[in-house]
């Protein structure tokens, strides 16, 4: 048997290595080609997964120019535009993506409708999403926001009840239920719901309302239920965190309801310092001045209210009373007629407005 020389052996080994490298390259090229044929959107998909949304969009649009009916490319383009905060453009591609939308895609698309002010379109998509993920807390909250804008309070209550049963939606659900009860003037039920929120979220970090609105609604419901002392406790708690003119004015009302007139006046003056346009505080200061027979002061306060709110029947009535006491008969009659006219215009029954400041005014 003839054995190859050492030189021949080395040459043979090199040829084997080169052949192996060549085979690997061919297999890789063919594999890439087959992969592209199997998934022509792989490049745009990989760019999207890496967070390169502009590149993903560009590649997807290039693909759509070649194959306008490619639903996968349309979906990548839509998703990329959502990430780029362009929901209106994204909708054009969502429409071309056919039925391939995931629940997250439905969420993004629906929110695009919300941003565009299309409540009906958003509602349709949220219903579709909730049929797939019935406990999706974000979809439930956004649906509730849509129904609130429609003043559909029974539906808001139903959505709130569903949220309460979800693992992460209880705080939002209790808050929404409190709002629905507040609007329907079910004072005690509203207080129960709002106090549950405080038990679950003492610092109101997860509660979805602006904090002043939460404290204001809670205080109004308590005062409407004759529980001014409890309202004052909550208002003081809120003001210690962030003093606002509205909350300070309500604090004055809670003092007034318990007969602490000087404390009430102090709060109302402070509210006007915080916000010179605080209409309710100015009205109460005007009424106090009337009660103290301080006619000029009353006129000054009511004049400021009328400047801020020309349709205020309360300000017109106060001005009529003060001018009468000063013997200004013509002015008094004019404001008396104005007050009567404004009250007639406002005499239609109010629905779904909830407890307001005027409902519990002294």
What does this structure look like?
The structure is a single chain. By secondary structure, the protein is mostly helical. The chain is built from 19 helices and no strands. It has helices at residues 6-38, 42-49, 53-66, 71-83, 87-94, 103-115, 119-132, 137-149, 153-164, 170-183, 187-200, 211-224, 228-241, 245-257, 261-274, 279-291, 295-308, 313-325, 329-345. The chain is elongated, with a radius of gyration of 34 Å. The N and C termini lie far apart (121 Å).
Strand content: under 5%
| N-to-C series of helices and strands | HHHHHHHHHHHHHHHHHHH
By DSSP (H or I, 4+ residues per run), the number of helices equals 19
Question: Mean of residue pLDDT?
Answer: 87
Helix content: over 70%
**How widely separated are the two ends?**
121 Å
CATH fold-level assignment of the domain at 132-209? Serine Threonine Protein Phosphatase 5, Tetratricopeptide repeat
User: Over all CA atoms, what is the radius of gyration?
Assistant: 34 Å
